Amino acid sequence: MIQKPRGTIDILPDESPVWRFIEDTARKVASNYGYGEIRFPTFEATELFMRGVGNDTDVVQKEMYTFYDRDNRSLTLRPEGTACVARSVIENSLYADSMPLRLYYLSSCFRYEKPQAGRSREFYQFGAELFGAATAVADAEIISLADAIIRNIGIKSVSLHINTLGCSDCRPRYHSRLKEYYKLNISNLCETCRDRLETNPLRILDCKNNDCVKLREGVPKTIDFLCDDCGEHFEILKRTLTKIGIDYRINTNIVRGLDYYTRTVFEFISDDIGAQGTLCGGGRYDGLIEAIGGPSTTGIGFAMGITRLILALKSSDNNIKSKYNENPLLYIASLGETASVHAVSLAEKLRAGGIFAECDIIGRSLKAQMKYADKKGAAFTLILGDNEIESGKAQLKNMRDGSQTPVDINDTDILRRLLGYDK
Ligand code: ATP
Ligand code: MG
What we know:
alpha+beta, BirA Bifunctional Protein, domain 2, Rossmann fold, eight-stranded mixed beta sheet, 16 strands, binds adenosine-5'-triphosphate, binds magnesium ion
């Protein structure tokens, strides 16, 4: 048997209503905030991610699916969406339109990671990006969008952690302090981080190696090295969040995994789903567009992992299945060939009116048909035999309470109402 590749998932019909519910909710909330949907290719030039995610990141160093096509071009399956959106903004000159530019996407991403609960090699993200707004109020708006999506999905026990990384003015001072700190502890760093010490010491703060995590205890904090502008930016952000009514906590350990972040970074972390608790991560990336060849444009965004949202939703709501069921199913059972033809045509007529109807198409016995209807969770059944067809009347059975109502099988309006569609 050929199996799916390690770290990938099949989303089966039973599970897909939850996915759709989450995706629809995110889409709806984002469009209320004025965000338009953008879609981009599954693979891009490898260089886009080397520049747009950063050479020193785990994503680029260890996790990318990179291959050469038949023309010997190096391509990479997108490991994230932000660099793709930024590339598209530049290529389509979207920055020339009136700013700010608000975009969202739903896309799969690919990273070669160790698969575990909440971590897979192909995973799905909802992301939003806001270009051309440099203010702290813009940061608050995008954080509020993420918060609204998580709340509208119905996830509980989530907390917002914020931090600031400073800017190109204040970061060099911080970097040298960080280097000093780690140089004193160099023997305890993992091999990758020893290399990063010279090139990009901030990445050490994001390393998942146990020894590197331990060293984080006494590490200098970005927040103590901010220039006046960055300090004020962070103050306004905190004030705005408080005014909107969004609770937050300052977590100086949050540096985010990608290289292009400046100033505000944030994560929404669930207490309910174990080690992979970060549902959503985001931050400001004012240098990104320029880093990949566009005009200087500010940006801030976030991405949330759909699988983790589902895990968190399931842990706050164990009745999730019944909540996201589709329309009530009417199952039309039939006895004999004439009735079977009639059942198909009635089902067609009902579906044309937007009703969810199924009938037997494999010539099963009545008993087997009813067993099937039960298994599919039919809300109602109709049984058609010669008598019913002749008289045009049948009994509509409500499968929940067992009650029966005589109906005219040619009157789809009445059927619609009885099935609960016109509430
Ligand atoms: P982590 O620290 O968990 O590896 P990250 O910093 O690499 O996360 P981002 O690149 O910021 O994650 O992606 C944003 C969100 O996408 C994460 O918060 C998470 O919900 C989700 N995500 C990231 N990687 C995976 C994965 N391999 N499988 C499932 N979801 C993921
Ligand atoms: Mg990661």
